[in-house]
Amino acid sequence: MSRLTKPYGPFARPSAPQPDAIAAWVKDRRAGRSAAWVAKYYGVPLQRVSDSTREFGPFRVRLKINGFVTVSEAADHLAIPVPTLCRWITREYMPAPQRRNGRRVWAESAFNDWLANAELETCPQCGAMTRDRVRHTAASH
Ligand SMILES: [Zn+2]
User: Fold this and answer.
1) Which terminus of the chain has a lower count of CB atoms within 10 Å, N or C?
2) Model pTM score
3) Could you tell me the distance, in angstroms and rounded to a whole number, from the CA of residue 93 to the centre of ligand 1?
4) What tens digit of pLDDT does each residue of 76-109 get?
5) What is the whole-number distance in angstroms between the Cα of residue 103 and the centre of ligand 1?
């Protein structure tokens, strides 16, 4: 069979994303969308998005307030519920946000520094960033 099809190849593996698909995902990730968001939006497995966009990263959190990350943006970026994020703050796993115009925010640089050192793992099933993947999987899946 390979002898017959060889002149027409090479063939992409069925699971291998096409370059234009990857380009679209990278564009969204550069715009600050999380891998989980991209996976959900395009209806593709998260692992595929992560694997094929990784080399184009690192990608940063999208910001609505210039230079600051709000609690909801942080939760969205980490693909975790806001109450989970608040628990991380209470337990001092995350630095406490500052109050700025009535909103709780981190400076962008502080948030990205924290994220770089947080040693979070990404759940391959739902894209949530988690401190303990085994416990997360047991609790959420
Ligand atoms: Zn999960």
Assistant:
1) N
2) 0.61
3) 19
4) 888 888 999 999 999 999 999 999 988 999 998 9
5) 28
